[in-house]
Design a protein that fits this description.
It is built from 7 helices and no strands. The protein is mainly alpha-helical. The radius of gyration is 17 Å and the shape is elongated.
Length: 204
């Protein structure tokens, strides 16, 4: 087996995907507020790239799990949540494209969010990184984004087919989800930037 150190690229991929999601949900919210399109149409427009990104993460994550491409238990710490991230994205994209219930995908995000927080905590306590606080923060914020995706999807599901706006509790949940995902994105990008030089200096 050839060791391929692709961690920096995958961290950048997660960061880029996360910023795409942030851009997407902000665009959906603004389009809906301006009454340019129905909420269902706004969501449907974003599903193509989400299907592509989610499928990519599932394939790459499964490849990493089968080939064990990273040193030791880093494969478990990194690739397991990566597959989960891909599954959640794909579930939301399929539900949004074909008119399925978003709360089912949101509940999946909730469960995988809890799992991600546990992985981050255990990776932190096991000392599996030179940036323990950054690792803990990245997993915690991405996990919280998954947790908040469930109540947010419940609120959005109620709005589909109506002209109503998010209530104050809904806006708070939306803000918590948005800020959690933003924080996770910034931390994963920070780790990726620091990883590039070290990985370039120690190729396989």
């Amino acid at each position: 087996m050839v060791y391929i150190d692709d961690l920096a690229f995958l961290l950048f991929s997660i960061t880029i995907a996360s910023f795409f999601i942030l851009y997407t949900i902000a665009s959906i919210y603004l389009s809906y507020k301006r009454d340019q399109k129905s909420l269902a149409d706004c969501i449907r427009d974003a599903t193509g790239p989400m299907i592509l990104i989610g499928s990519y993460f599932i394939v790459v994550g499964a490849w990493g799990q089968f080939t064990w491409s990273l040193p030791g238990s880093y494969n478990i710490l990194f690739y397991d949540p990566l597959v989960a991230f891909g599954m959640v994205l794909l579930a939301f994209a399929i539900a949004g494209r074909y008119g399925g219930r978003l709360d089912y995908a949101g509940f999946l995000g909730f469960m995988f969010g809890i799992m991600t927080i546990i992985y981050g905590h255990d990776g932190f306590t096991a000392g599996l990184t030179q940036l323990p606080l950054a690792l803990l923060g990245m997993y915690a914020f991405y996990g919280l984004a998954g947790v908040f995706s469930f109540p947010l999807s419940l609120k959005v599901e109620i709005l589909i087919g109506t002209k109503k706006s998010l209530s104050t509790p809904g806006l708070i949940i939306f803000a918590l989800f948005f800020l959690s995902l933003l924080a996770g994105s910034l931390i994963s990008g920070y780790i990726a930037i620091l990883a590039i030089q070290g990985h370039l200096l120690s190729p396989p």
